[in-house]
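Me: I hope this is not a bother. Any chance you could explain this protein sequence and its structure tokens? It all follows right here:
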Amino acid sequence: MQVREKSRRLMLPALAGLALASASAIAAAQVSLTSVVELAQKNSAAVRLSQADVQKASAELGQSHDAFIPSVSFGSGLPAFPEVGFTGSLPTIWDSTIQSMVFSMPQIQFIRAARVALKAAQLSLKDSREQVALDASTAYIELDTVDLELEAARQQEQDATRLMAIEQQRTEAGVDPLSELLQAQLTAAQLKLQRLHLETRAAALSKQLAVLTDLPVGSITPDHASIPEIPAVTADEHALSTSAIDSAQALARSRQLAAKGDREHQWFLPEVSFGALYNRNTTLLNNINDYYRQNLPANNFSSGFSIRVPLFDAGLHAKAKESAAEALRARVEAEQAQNQNDIQITELTASLRELDTQAEIASLKQQIAGEQLKSVLVQMELGNGAGNAPGAPPQLSPTAEQQARIDERQKYQDALDAGFDLSKARLNLLRALGHMQDWLNELHSK
């Protein structure tokens, strides 16, 4: 027993270490953008709600069709006590009824309305999936950008630490004034604040992706190679109708057909129905045959067509007005959705030109900072090339290298930010132009 207990004690730390190593490996695993988008669409509450709307619309379409399908019902009634005297009703032990609608113009309009409503729900589902894909893609690309900025920010902090150490030595030696040391400390504090801001931003994005995908917080490490290049589309290209606009227009059409069906109820159009009835009568526990000239038959069957012509119904008149108002509202909402999308395209196109130029400027500044850093490193190694001749530029101090490194990393982060803003605007313009499916196809081919 002691040997077994000792072995168990030795194995527990090993198992715990293995579990921690496995958890770290899982936490550090990279997840592609395609996987994130698929998980987000599967987990999205908006998508599930849209799927429920599609199921409801499909059921309503089936219900409107079922009016023309015969319905069969069966009933049975057994007397609890023997009947005494003439009750006025036939002693039926069981009966069966068949009913169905044969012809109704309003019902045909209702079927058409339900069919178009199903199409509207399907388009709304597609729009929900595209919106979730846009949100997940934007958050994923931003997290990838922030991770790159965090790496640059940590390099900046290391350079700032070396800068403070150099200024501390130069101040103690009386080469630089105290203000230079304080400025270096201020730079280090500002860079620390910037790094903390980036870490907060990364934590918020990780939480957002965790909510979207239902994965543990912090388990998604972006794979930069899985992000395809976003097409540089413009409003001048062929614009497709978005799923949201198509859904709104289909819903308006459905409301119009339903309103037409309600109006046709007032047009004196006949409605034809079919019915059949079978009765099985019994003389058990009753003396019904004493009151009839001939014995009551056991089997009874009847069938026929019912023709109904509506002349006046105040309720149907009010219902027609209600349906007309709903149709008008749906048509206005569809027009409003189209106008808002047109405005969004105009705004995105204008901002896209600015963001494109800003990204170009940030990239040029980064390149200039990189060349300046190379120049500083060369001068630090070889000198300024002019020696101590009159008018020669002074020899660079050791602080110049750290300042150049910090500036180059800052310009790099600015370029990353500008690039992300440009990518985000392009994705939104893709969606507004109705080309979001092109982006999803690009993801799945990656």
Remarks:
- Residues 314-382 form the longest helix (69 residues).
- The beta strands are 30-31, 71-76, 92-103, 221-222, 271-281, 299-308.
- Residues 1-27 have pLDDT under 50 and may be disordered.
